[in-house]
Amino acid sequence: MTSQAVAYFTEHGSVEAVNARIGAGCDARLALVMSRLVHHLHAFVKDVALTQEEWGLAIDFLTRTGQMCDDKRQEYILLSDVLGVSMLVDAINNRRPEGATENTVLGPFHVDGVPEMPMGTNICKDGAKEPCLFEGVVTDLQGRPLQGVRIDVWSDNEEGFYDVQQPGVQPEHNNRGVFVTGADGRYWFEGIKPVSYPIPDDGPVGQLLGRLGRHPYRPAHMHFMVSREGFDTIVTHTFVGGDAYLASDAVFGVKASLIAPFDPVEGGATKWRSRFDFVMNPRDVV
Ligand code: BEZ
Ligand code: FE
C-alpha cells in the first residue's frame, strides 16, 4: 500500500478515517448505526468547536452518570429521558393509526409481579385524601370491546413518591394494580388523584437540569400498560388535565390525546372520577 492510500486522521477527514476501520465482517446494522453515530458525533464536535476542558467535563459527567447506576437506579435512562431520546425512540417504534391510543415513556418505576386483582379494587394502601375512580373501556380500532386485556397500573402517592422509592415507608405495591377486562371490555379501580413530582434529581442528570435552568418536575399522571395477545402493547399514562407542568414535563412525555378529565364527584365513594378509554392497534398493522 502506498502512503497516499492511507487515510491518516485529519480534522477534515476525521469521519472517513474512523469509519474506514469498520471490518468487512461487521454486522451490517451495527456498521450503519456506528458509522452514522461517528458522522453526527464528529459534526457536533466541529459545530461547537469543543474545547479540551469541555471534553473533560463531558467525560467526567458520563463517568459520574455510570457510577450512579445500580440495580435500582438507571441514570443513563434518566439522561435519555431528559434529552428527549426516550420519547423519540418510542415514537419511531410505536407509530399507530389515527384513533389508536398513543404511547409515552415507561419510566423507571414499573414493577413486575403485581398480582391480578378483582375489578374495582382500591390500590391505595396508605390512606387517600383525594380518592379517585379510574374507569373506561378497552376496544379495538372498530370500537369493539376487548376481553382478556391486562391492565397494569401504577402511580405515585399523595406525597409524590412511588412505593419503590420508599421501601419500608410505603406498603409494598402501594398504588399498583393489575386488572383483566371481561367481555364488555370495561375496567375500573380506585386509586388517588396523582400529584406532580420531581424525577430523581440528586445525581448528575439533576445537576445538568439545574445548570440548564430546567426544573425536574413531571405533571401528575397515572401509568398504564395495556396488553393483549395480537395487539400492540400500550405503554402510556393519563395526565391530570390542568396540571401546572403539562407544558414543561421534564421528560417530554405529554401528548394532547393523553390528557384525561379528572372530575369532582358529589356524594360518591371517591372524590374524583377519571374516565379514559383505550383503543388497541392490531400487532404489525400501522
Ligand atoms: C415516571 O413517570 O415514572 C418517570 C418517567 C421518566 C423518568 C422518571 C420517572
Ligand atoms: Fe411516573
Automatic annotation (TrEMBL):
Keywords: Dioxygenase, Iron, Metal-binding, Oxidoreductase. PROSITE patterns: INTRADIOL_DIOXYGENAS (PS00083). It comes from the Bacteria. The keyword Metal-binding applies. InterPro entries: Catechol_dOase_N (IPR007535), Intradiol_dOase_C (IPR000627), Intradiol_dOase_core (IPR015889), Intradiol_RC_Dioxygenase (IPR050770). Its cofactor is Fe(3+). Residues 134-162 form the Intradiol ring-cleavage dioxygenases domain. Belongs to the intradiol ring-cleavage dioxygenase family. This is 6-chlorohydroxyquinol-1,2-dioxygenase. It comes from Paragemmobacter ruber.
